[in-house]
Structure formats: C-alpha cells, structure tokens
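call fold(seq) -> tokens
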Amino acid sequence: MGANKILIADDEQVVHESLGIYLKAEGFETIDVFDGQQAIDALSSEVALCVLDIMMPNMSGIDACKEIRRTSKVPIIMLTAKGEEIDRILGLELGADDYIVKPFSPREVVARIKAVLRRTNEQKAGDSDAIVHDGLVIDIKSYTVTLDNHPVICTPKEIEILYLLASNPGHVFTREQLLNKVWGYDYAGETRTVDTHIKRIRAKLDNTGKNWSIKTIYGVGYKFEVE
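ret:
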C-alpha cells in the first residue's frame, strides 16, 4: 500500500539526510525532492504525508501547498527557517496540518509526523456518519461538504472546523480550543488563523433561509447555532 511513504521537499541536502535517518529507523520510506514543483510531480496515492520547506527554488512550499490542496487532502507539515508569524499563518490557512521552525530536532519532526498521521487515521476510523443540518451535509470520512446537493469546495481544515462546530450545535468553542482540536497543537498568539478560516467558511456557505448559522461569540469564540 505504501502508506508509510513520507515526501520531503527541501533544497538542503542535510535536511534530507538527517530526517531520512530517523524516519527510516521508524519504518518510514522517504521520497526526496528539492523544490515545490518536484513535490507536486512526485505526489501520489502512496504518499502518507508531505513535509514542505517554505523557501525553495522554482516553486515555494506555500505555492506547492496551495497547488496540492487543489486535488489532495494528504497531510502537510510546513518547514520555515524564518520563524515569522505571517509564514506560519499563511501555511495553516492554505490547509497545512502543522508547521515546524528551523533549526529543528529530527526527533521532533518525526514525532510531529507520527502525531499528524495518528490524528488523521483516528479521524478516518472513528468519525460517525455525516452531519446534516437543513441542506448542509458535512462528511468527514470523504472530506466533502454539500449545500442543497451542490458541492462546496473547502480546504481540509475548513471542513474539520465546520464538522467540529456542526457536531456540537450550541456549544461555544474558543479560538484556542479550535486550534488545539483541529490542528492538535497550541498555536499561542496565532488565533487569527481561526478567524480567517471562519470567514472563508461563511463566504462559501449561503445560509439564507436556513435554520442554522455560525455565530460569533464576541470575546470568546464561535458556535454553530440551530434555531
């Protein structure tokens, strides 16, 4: 099945060497590429997860992430040497599952890879049937959203946020809780990415005449409200 293949896109050979040693020791195979376009070309159904460096020649990791997300829901971890908030937030908004700032410990990267894969696999195996609310259908197993039988194109993170909210109507989630539950880590000070995701979800869903809505609870967070 090749479900243990990790695609690593980074223009530094030392990154491939250091990560390769630790990943292979954990039973993973690696596919090594050196720019964003090569990452897109190398992507296949056998790839379990992508590690994308943000700064690469020919095509950046951000552009590669954007292109991959057009056709694939494969988990993505971004690497950034800058450590700048804008890079991390942009990566997350485009659908990345996690980010790691260089310099990093290879052990940490492997641990984060395993955590993302575990969370993804648990979600696929454990989630119940699709959530349905007045014309809105959110199927987390197939990662699809439809509204009045029309497909709504959403990123994986938008679907996960929407599924979480709609699965708990009336429950108020703080931005920090949404970050922790959807991304699996505490992104201190970066809760703006939640606001951006919610804004995009609302823009894609026309709830005119529907009995549901995504409400902002000012100073707290968000909830999915059903009348």
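The radius of gyration is 18 Å.
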